[in-house]
Design brief:
Alpha-Beta Plaits, 5 domains, five-stranded parallel beta sheet, Rossmann fold, alpha/beta, FAD/NAD(P)-binding domain
Length: 654
């Protein structure tokens, strides 16, 4: 095999690299290495002129291997590979040395060390490039259907975009109705638009859309397959009421003798054992809470079935397993409210007149448990003096370090609404007010002018008068540098942050997704791929990815829908050849590789030998390193290529 002719191109990245790394010294150090046919530097190799230089030199000098010393491959690897394709060269005889993040940025205070390290990285890349092979990409077809997990505003928005574009959508929601937390909110900030007025028409569209199949009271149980061809098993709990027959007349609920706390109302009121979560619920049908039901026969109860003229109630309803095939998946599992009982100093669940933001939202709703009146839960008297405490469960070393983003504006919105309705005295204790969106700062300023008092400082403790149940709030005004006490408070509202839902852990396990340290699902790249996951064909949207407000949630849902459409619209996609391959002559059939593969990409073929599915394999190399027979090789990252890099480094430092 003739020696490869390698071209080395070194990017200045403006001053990001050249401001620290001595580019001339790097070029001098590598220009005489065997196999290097050309060395050149340019200010921005990723730019259009830079790519043209790359293409021209490949053709002019008949280069058959390329090394580019620049930024992280996550930024421009695709850019450089496309340029190589256009020049008629395989994109897999290309190696990128990261001398920005690994050299100039991390060693900015030591240019000499940064340059030495850059030389090592480029030399090692040249050594590896000599052994790279022009691999072939394979193609897989993509089904034109999408599974969306979670039917809050993110899932609803993505489903409607995909359905309107002509794609089949399976919308799975674990609750009895779609709508998520937004359905429980009274108004939206900063315009004070009615949340239900915005959301419920969209919910109705989902319920009647010909391309959307709605599956409620269900969770994803298992996902097999790969991008374009996912095989999904959905586990649906029994509703005990036939959706097709139920007319939502409510006769069953009227005769039910059971009263239990209503989850939709945050337990501020009661519902029956057979109920509809709220008036505009979709699907518009009752369901039977069998855990609260007194009995399903005439001796114990059975009144609901007797009252149902349509015959919609089925006490024998069973759990169902639904199997579907989809091309793409969008995860929109939403969020949970932080459990304020973890902050014992605030007395949540101990003092009856300490509540959280979500509970006040239901009080403010005219359709809520108090018909729009914000009251003391202890005696249902209207609250005249209210204190809000911000950052409960957020920006806190003991709970969650991140900002939940929506709490400040929700508290300001609620305070403004209460102030305008009742003229109550309202105080908001804050660390820093985060009014980051369009019109948010103006809304905050107008709320302050309306008479709401903002106090910069943390609250240390809340005390209760056992006779009157009035509260005393002790804290510090950090602007004045003085302790502050507010007495005879009717209601304390904890601005509880948001946390990743319990479902995030199970969904991430089933789909093979990563979670960030805060528990939310991790995106492939925070700037360039904010809705992609690390698994091809699977996208994240809304608060499944992290805290955000409604406009950002809807925008991200549209982005995820667009990503899914882009994939499905192609019909076929190319699979990068970074998968492992098995030498059947060496394979002993021990199946160790199957047990350790994190992507379930390996199975046994009809000859009892391991076989790798290229569409599932991510080339992580776990199987390669554990195969006792040495039968598995990771393409593009062979033992020989890695060894060549190590040997090159060692030889330079003898």
């Amino acid at each position: 095999m003739p020696e490869r002719r390698i071209g080395v191109f070194i990017c200045h990245c403006g001053s990001n690299i050249a401001g620290v790394v001595d580019i001339d010294r790097v070029m001098e150090a590598v220009k005489d290495i065997d196999g290097v046919a050309h060395v050149e530097d340019y200010k921005y190799v990723c730019s259009k002129p830079g790519q043209q230089i790359l293409r021209d030199k490949i053709k002019e000098l008949r280069l058959d291997g390329i090394v580019i010393a620049a930024c992280s491959p996550r930024m421009h690897e695709t850019t450089f590979r496309n340029a190589m394709r256009e020049a008629g060269l395989s994109p897999y005889v290309f190696e990128q040395a990261n001398i920005r993040e690994h050299c100039s940025w991390i060693h900015s205070d030591d240019p000499e060390a940064a340059t030495d390290k850059a030389i090592d990285l480029v030399r090692m890349s040249i050594a590896r490039s000599k052994l790279l092979e022009p691999l072939e990409e394979s193609e897989v077809s993509i089904l034109k259907s999408t599974l969306i997990v979670g039917a809050g505003i993110a899932g609803i928005s993505a489903a409607l975009d995909l359905g309107d574009a002509g794609f089949q959508v399976y919308l799975v929601e674990k609750e009895p109705t779609i709508g998520g937390h937004m359905a429980q909110w009274d108004k939206t900030f900063p315009t004070l638009d009615c949340s239900s007025c915005i959301l419920t028409p969209r919910m109705a569209e989902v319920g009647s859309h010909p391309n959307i199949e709605l599956i409620t009271m269900a969770e994803v149980d298992k996902v097999d397959g790969f991008v374009g061809n996912f095989e999904v098993t959905i586990r649906q709990r029994p509703r005990y009421v036939d959706l097709e027959i139920c007319t939502s007349c409510g006769d069953c609920s009227l005769v039910c003798p059971v009263d239990v706390p209503a989850e939709f109302e945050h337990n501020l009121s009661f519902r029956k054992a057979i109920y509809v979560p709220f008036a505009q619920a979709v699907p518009s049908a009752y369901l039977l809470d069998m855990d609260s039901c007194l009995g399903v026969d005439a001796v114990r109860c059975g009144k609901c079935k007797l009252a149902c003229e349509a015959g919609a109630i089925d006490y024998d309803d069973q759990e169902k397993l639904i199997r579907i095939d989809v091309g793409t998946i969008i995860v929109a599992t939403g969020f949970d409210i932080f459990d304020a009982t973890q902050k014992e100093e605030y007395g949540y669940s101990v003092f009856p007149n300490v509540v959280n933001l979500a509970e006040v939202e239901r009080m403010l709703s005219s359709a809520g448990p108090t018909q729009g009146h914000v009251v003391r839960p202890q005696d249902l008297k209207e609250a005249k003096k209210i204190v809000y405490i911000q950052c409960v469960g957020s920006r806190d070393e003991r709970t969650n370090k991140y900002c939940s983003r929506i709490c400040c504006m929700t508290a300001i919105k609620q305070a403004r609404m209460i102030r305008d309705k009742t003229g109550a005295d309202i105080y908001i204790f804050y660390i820093d007010l985060r009014t980051f969106g369009k019109g948010y700062e103006e809304f905050y300023e107008s709320t302050a002018k309306a008479g709401v008092s903002f106090i910069r400082g943390r609250v240390g403790e809340i005390l209760e008068d056992r006779k009157t149940h009035l509260l005393t709030v002790r804290g510090e005004d950090t602007l004045l540098g003085k302790p502050i006490k507010i007495s005879e408070v009717d209601l304390v509202v904890l601005s509880t942050g948001v946390v990743a839902p319990e479902a995030a852990k199970s969904v991430s396990h089933i789909l093979g997704l990563s979670q960030s340290p805060d528990g939310f699902l991790m995106e492939a790249h925070p700037k360039l791929r904010p809705v992609d996951s690390f698994n091809d064909g699977i996208f994240v949207a809304g608060m499944a990815q992290g805290p955000k407000d409604i406009p950002d949630t809807v925008a991200q849902a549209k982005a995820a829908a667009s990503g899914a459409m882009g994939l499905m619209g192609k019909g076929k996609i190319s699979i990068e050849p970074y998968y492992s391959v098995v030498d059947e002559d060496k394979c002993s059939g021990c199946q160790v590789c199957i047990s350790i593969c994190p992507y379930s990409a390996i199975s046994m073929n009809n000859r009892d030998r391991a076989e790798v599915n290229p569409a599932l394999c991510k080339g992580c190399g776990t199987c390669t390193s554990t195969c006792p027979s040495g039968a598995i090789t990771s393409q593009h990252y062979t033992d020989g290529q890695i060894s060549a890099m190590i040997e090159e480094y060692l030889s330079a430092h003898d």
